[in-house]
Specification:
By secondary structure, the protein is mostly helical. It is 64% helix and 3% strand. The chain has a two-stranded antiparallel sheet. Strand 1 and strand 2 form a beta hairpin. It starts with 7 loop residues before the first helix and ends in a 6-residue tail after the last strand.
C-alpha cells in the first residue's frame, strides 16, 4: 500500500484495477483513503458548503472518468456495495454510480433504486434519494411513471423516496418552473397516513411555495377542505415558508388563530391590520 496520498485520478484508477482483480479489501481501503484525501483538501471556509455529500460525488465522478464503458459503472457499483459494511457512509458512491449509469440505461437503475429506497439504514435511504435526482431530468417520462408507481407502494420508505427525490433543490431547481410534474406524483400522497413519507410531502410543498406561493395556497385550501387529518397535517407543514410573508392568510387557510413551527410562532393578536 502506498504511504502518501496518490493524485486523485491515479487513486481512482487503482481502485478500479483492484476491484477488477478481485482484491476488494485493498480497493475499499483505497476508496476510503481517496474520500478522506478529497475531504482534507477542501479549504476550511468551504467545508460547510462542501461536506460529505460533495466529497462522495467527487469520488464517484473520478471513478466514472476511469470507466471506459457504462457497463463498468454498473459492475463497480455492485462491487463497492458488496464490500461495504451495513450503513457505511460510502454507500453513497455506488448509488451515485448507478444513477450516472441510469442516465443512459434507466431500467436496471430503476430496479436498483426501488430496492435502495428501502435500504435499512437511514444514511443509505438519504443517499438513494439524493443520487436518484441525477436521473430525473434526462429520463423524465420514464422516471415519473416509476415515481407514480412508487408513490402507491405499500412500503412507507418507497413512498417517502418519492417525496424526497422530487424536492425542488440543487439539480431539481427546474421543478419550480413545472411544479405540476412533481405534484402529479405527490397527489398520491396527499392523505399519507405514515409520518415518515407524510413529512416529506409537507416539506416538498413548502419548498415549492418559495417560487409558487399561489399554487401552494390553493393546495393548502384543498387539503384542509377534505377534512382528513393527514391531509391537514401536510397542509400545515406546507405553510412553513408561506407564514413568513403571509401569516394572516396562512391562518385563514388553515382555519386557526395561531401557527407554530419550531421558532416560528404567530398569532392573529400579533398581526397589525
Amino acid at each position: 500500500m502506498h504511504t502518501s496520498p496518490l493524485p486523485e485520478q491515479q487513486s481512482a484508477g487503482l481502485i478500479l484495477q483492484q476491484f477488477s482483480q478481485g482484491d476488494s479489501s485493498s480497493a475499499l481501503s483505497e476508496l476510503r483513503q481517496l474520500v478522506n484525501d478529497i475531504h482534507a483538501a477542501i479549504p476550511e471556509k468551504q467545508r460547510i458548503g462542501k461536506g460529505i455529500t460533495w466529497t462522495l460525488q467527487r469520488a464517484a465522478g473520478l471513478l466514472v472518468e476511469e470507466c471506459t464503458e457504462p457497463r463498468q459503472m454498473r459492475e463497480l457499483a455492485g462491487q463497492i456495495e458488496a464490500a461495504l459494511p451495513a450503513d457505511d457512509r460510502l454507500v453513497g458512491i455506488p448509488m451515485i454510480l448507478m444513477a450516472e449509469y441510469g442516465v443512459g440505461d434507466p431500467l436496471p437503475a430503476l430496479t436498483y433504486f426501488r430496492g435502495a429506497a428501502n435500504n435499512p439504514g437511514w444514511m443509505g435511504r438519504e443517499f438513494a434519494q439524493l443520487a436518484f435526482r441525477r436521473m430525473i431530468l434526462p429520463q423524465r417520462p420514464l422516471v415519473f411513471l416509476f415515481l407514480e408507481e412508487m408513490a402507491q407502494s405499500t412500503e412507507p420508505n418507497q413512498r417517502r423516496f418519492c417525496g424526497e427525490t422530487l424536492r425542488p433543490v440543487v439539480e431539481n431547481q427546474w421543478l419550480q418552473k413545472v411544479p405540476q410534474a412533481s405534484l402529479a406524483v405527490l397527489r398520491h400522497l396527499f392523505r399519507e397516513p405514515h409520518p415518515y413519507p407524510r413529512t416529506s410531502v409537507g416539506n416538498n410543498l413548502s419548498d415549492l411555495s418559495r417560487r409558487n406561493p399561489e399554487l401552494i395556497f390553493a393546495i393548502v385550501e384543498e387539503l384542509v377542505s377534505t377534512g382528513d387529518a393527514n391531509s391537514y397535517w401536510i397542509a400545515y407543514r406546507a405553510c412553513r415558508n408561506l407564514v413568513k410573508h403571509s401569516p394572516k392568510r396562512v391562518m385563514d387557510a388553515l382555519r386557526v388563530d395561531e401557527y407554530h413551527y419550531k421558532d416560528r410562532n404567530v398569532s392573529r393578536d400579533e398581526i397589525k391590520d
